[in-house]
């Protein structure tokens, strides 16, 4: 009967919910020790200048490898870390590690930018600005080369509050990017009144752009808007030459995606950068630099 099948479905969902809750608890349990156990690492994905094809810097992306759970995606553990109050500490780790890595690269002559993700919860904590200034101050890395990426969804707080969090950092030369732009349903008027420097177009708008006219129109409008607002633009998730060509033609300033490289270890990132330098000197990369 209908009643019977309804009950079955209900108990099916109960089992699912219980399983999900158990899984969560298991991850949370390991997450609490992850920092102390040294299970986090940071990988770097090149950001490429769209017209010169050169690597201008990278985005730092967090990785968690637990002996029992294996590699866990940040999409899964970042929300949990936020709920458990662990994100400020983890965020500080990312900041420290990536700045010290980029300082080392700088010492060997590579002048690169670094973009670091800041979670909404991390950003909204009162102590965020002071703590971040502290870590940045100790890093021996030029703050004009540091960009903080904040997702649109972080911007639930009042505009005044957001501005207050941003300004002391901006005064020191740090820039800010809106991450995953177009996915957060935020108030466009508020968003554009805040002192953001960069707009990152979400990958969902970039993917298979050649197959979808609506998507193409939307991306053109976003790029036009950014230009009118004097914002730099980054297109994330570029995987194909076709996508690169569209985004480049329409004036996206910087590209990021598997077309160039996935996020890689510091050593591999250094190799990518150094390879480029060698090619430049021999002149064999003409086609890349004359795009
Ligand atoms: P995000 O900041 O938007 O980062 C871009 C994500 O897209 C990364 O996933 C990256 O590996 C992936 N990606 C880049 N290019 C391509 C491409 O061409 N194709 C495809 N399919 N994917 C591409 P990842 O590393 O798994 O990170 C996922 C999200 O987790 C990030 O999205 C960010 O929101 C969050 N996250 C990562 N690291 C941190 C961190 O240190 N702190 C905070 N708060 N969040 C982080
Ligand atoms: Mg990001
Ligand atoms: Mg993004
Ligand atoms: Mg994204």
Provide a short characterization of the protein structure.
With 291 residues, the chain is α/β, with parallel strands linked by helices.
Q: Name the poorly predicted regions.
A: 284-291
Oligomer: single chain
Hetero compounds: ligand C2E, magnesium ion
Mean pLDDT: 90
Order of helices and strands: HEEEHHEHHEHEHEHHEHEHH
Estimate what percentage of residues fall within beta strands. 15-25%
Strands, total number: 9
Q: How far do the termini sit from each other?
A: 67 Å
Tally of individual helices: 12
Give the overall shape, derived from the CA principal axes.
globular
Share of helix among residues? Answer: 40-55%
Largest sheet: 8 strands, mixed, barrel
| Structural class determined from secondary elements | alpha/beta
Side by side, the strands of the main sheet go 1-2-4-5-6-7-8-9
Rg over alpha carbons: 21 Å
Domain EAL: 24-277
Protein name: Bifunctional diguanylate cyclase/phosphodiesterase
Q: How would you describe this protein?
A:
The chain has an eight-stranded mixed beta barrel, surrounded by five helices. α3 (87-107) runs parallel beside α5 (128-137). It has helices spanning 2-34, 74-83, 87-107, 120-124, 128-137, 159-171, 188-193, 203-206, 213-228, 241-249, 266-282, 286-289; strands at residues 40-49, 55-66, 70-72, 113-118, 146-151, 175-181, 198-201, 232-236, 254-256. The chain is α/β, with parallel strands linked by helices and 291 residues long. One magnesium ion (MG) is lined by residues 180, 202-203, 236.
What is this structure's SSE topology?
Layout: H1 2-34, E1 40-49, E2 55-66, E3 70-72, H2 74-83, H3 87-107, E4 113-118, H4 120-124, H5 128-137, E5 146-151, H6 159-171, E6 175-181, H7 188-193, E7 198-201, H8 203-206, H9 213-228, E8 232-236, H10 241-249, E9 254-256, H11 266-282, H12 286-289
Parallel strand pairs: 2-4, 4-5, 5-6, 6-7, 7-8, 8-9
Antiparallel strand pairs: 1-2, 1-9, 2-3
This protein binds ligand C2E and magnesium ion (MG) (3 copies).
Domain EAL: 24-277
Keywords: Membrane, Transmembrane, Transmembrane helix
Protein name: Bifunctional diguanylate cyclase/phosphodiesterase
